[in-house]
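wait is this the right file?? whatever heres the structure
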């Protein structure tokens, strides 16, 4: 038996994809289409360890999906065997709190949610529509980044703004990166050999986008991202938390438009705004060279992360595991060590050798004596999506 599933992650100018056999969880193909909307874009299609690169024009997501099917026809595997398509969808609003089969009506509801996730949902919807045209005979399902956080309690998701305004416009915290937080938190239970619902944990998903979650006996109770994926931690190009008064200040005192403010906070802030680099390999090098801006940027990043961890430990009333995942979390022993050192007052101790050893395996990096287990668990959002899709189609 095999259940190949095509997973699509459509952004505004790119589509990442994988085909995973949901039975043995093998990756059968993967690839990325870049610069959709430009005259000249690229597609890199990897199958059997070989990457096939082509330059093509992708005026829109529809054309990109057509070329994607041509790559599968030419280099395999055959898309005819695909049993379902899973679409990463950033914002499910309050309406979609679990993986959902897509039909016309559902897609219409999703379109109506777009103002809630202006950066992310429109491309995902364009990707869904295009994929349904090129693969009309298989079920398509939407996997929501917000779904894992549908369990947040009202005191965590409610903003202190007028109730009527919030109710009318769906203004509340939603939380994002849920697919990763769900996958990683379950993996932590496996690694520790404990039932998922038997302990409290914190997961730090630190990639270009970054977020942190608190999971109380298997139930997500806090998340750092909010109404949009801009809130919370310092990210590659996103500010994370700022004084909400900053928006009015920038508009009134600096004369910036709402669009300028939005672009500045989403695309020109974070580590990029602080030190001109987003990649932690570059940032670590700059810090090593004594660069002041990069040193401060890293200190701000670490301070914000630590303040969330402290807050979530208090909300959970204690924690048994804190886990680092995604590009920055998985690859930065110095950052992990800096956080662990600040938690030493709670009895946290790292095994420096394990922390410094590069590995793709999930692992505990604290000592056996540590009061809280510290882990590194590589995230795998595509695999989590494949499992979700398989379950949704009842395969
Ligand atoms: P996203 O999925 O949000 O685009 P990733 O989880 O892939 O992001 O994380 C990408 C980031 O991970 C890079 O920008 C970089 O900062 C960091 N990163 C990746 N590899 C390394 C490494 N070897 N050393 C330090 N940082 C790394």
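ok assuming it is, sequence goes like this
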């Amino acid at each position: 038996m095999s259940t190949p599933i095509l997973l699509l992650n459509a952004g505004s100018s790119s589509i990442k994809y994988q085909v995973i056999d949901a039975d043995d969880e093998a990756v059968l193909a993967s690839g990325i289409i870049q610069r959709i909307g430009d005259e000249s874009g690229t597609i890199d299609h990897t199958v059997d360890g070989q990457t096939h690169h082509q330059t093509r024009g992708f005026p829109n997501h529809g054309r990109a999906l057509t070329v994607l099917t041509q790559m599968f026809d030419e280099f395999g595997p055959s898309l005819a065997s695909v049993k379902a398509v899973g679409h990463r969808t950033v914002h499910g609003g309050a309406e979609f709190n679990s993986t959902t089969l897509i039909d016309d009506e559902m897609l219409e509801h999703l379109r109506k949610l777009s103002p809630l996730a202006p950066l992310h949902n429109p491309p995902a919807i364009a990707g869904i529509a295009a994929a349904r045209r090129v693969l009309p005979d298989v079920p398509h399902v939407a996997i929501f980044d917000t779904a894992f956080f549908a369990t947040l309690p009202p005191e965590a998701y409610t903003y202190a703004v007028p109730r009527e305004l919030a109710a009318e416009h769906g203004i509340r915290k939603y939380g994002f990166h849920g697919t990763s937080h769900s996958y990683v938190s379950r993996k932590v239970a496996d690694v520790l050999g404990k039932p998922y619902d038997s302990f409290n944990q914190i997961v730090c998903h630190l990639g270009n986008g970054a977020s942190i979650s608190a999971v109380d006996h298997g139930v997500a109770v806090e998340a750092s991202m909010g109404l949009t994926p801009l809130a919370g931690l310092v990210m590659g190009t996103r500010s994370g938390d700022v004084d909400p008064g900053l928006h009015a200040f920038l508009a009134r005192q600096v004369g910036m438009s709402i669009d300028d403010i939005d672009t500045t906070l989403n695309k020109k802030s974070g580590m990029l705004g602080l030190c001109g680099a987003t990649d932690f390999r570059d940032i670590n090098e700059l810090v090593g060279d004594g660069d002041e801006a990069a040193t401060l940027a890293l200190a701000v990043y670490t301070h914000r992360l630590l303040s969330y961890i402290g807050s979530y430990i208090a909300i959970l009333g204690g924690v048994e595991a804190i886990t680092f995942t995604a590009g920055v979390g998985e690859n930065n022993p110095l950052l992990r060590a800096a956080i662990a050192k600040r938690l030493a007052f709670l009895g946290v101790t790292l095994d420096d050798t394990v922390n410094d050893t590069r590995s793709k395996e999930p692992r505990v990096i604290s000592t056996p004596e540590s009061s809280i287990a510290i882990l590194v668990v590589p995230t795998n959002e595509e695999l989590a999506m494949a499992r979700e899709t398989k379950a949704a189609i009842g395969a």
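The CA atoms of residues 63 and 221 lie 41 Å apart. so i think its the right one actually
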